[in-house]
Design goal:
Elements: E1 12-13, E2 20-28, E3 37-49, E4 59-65, E5 68-72, E6 75-79, E7 84-87, E8 93-97, E9 103-110
Antiparallel strand pairs: 1-2, 2-3, 3-9, 4-7, 4-9, 5-6, 5-8
Length: 115
């Protein structure tokens, strides 16, 4: 059992080639009792973006705040609060903040995806 608040979780800058203005917080995972999975929160500053990339694990996303765009397998989708997305393993994808405020989204991945 675990109850906490996002402000209690460490925020780390994502320092990957092709990323800019991105921070990540691991919210719930094995350390909180959820074996095998991790829920993270990503924050993209205005103009920020994740690298265009792919990996073998799937992930589930939920947009909490802001506006942006999801590039997924050569298609572009607009993001706003309440947008949900399932990205299968192996799919090329990228998140971009196209708004004037932070783009914040939750991302659930298998534990192997949070290394």
């Amino acid at each position: 059992m675990f109850v906490g608040h996002v402000r209690e979780k460490e925020e780390a800058t994502v320092n990957l080639p092709g990323a800019a203005g991105v921070t990540k917080q691991s919210l719930i995972g094995p350390a909180e009792g959820w074996a095998g999975w991790v829920m993270r929160q990503f924050t993209l500053a205005p103009g920020g973006f994740t690298p265009r990339h792919q990996h073998p694990w799937p992930h589930i996303n939920y947009v909490v705040a802001g506006a942006g765009q999801l590039y997924l397998e050569a298609q572009e989708y607009q993001l706003e609060p309440g947008t949900i997305a399932y990205i299968p393993g192996g799919a090329e994808h990228q998140f971009l903040n196209t708004g004037t405020k932070a783009l914040i989204f939750l991302c659930i991945v298998p534990e192997e995806g949070d290394k």
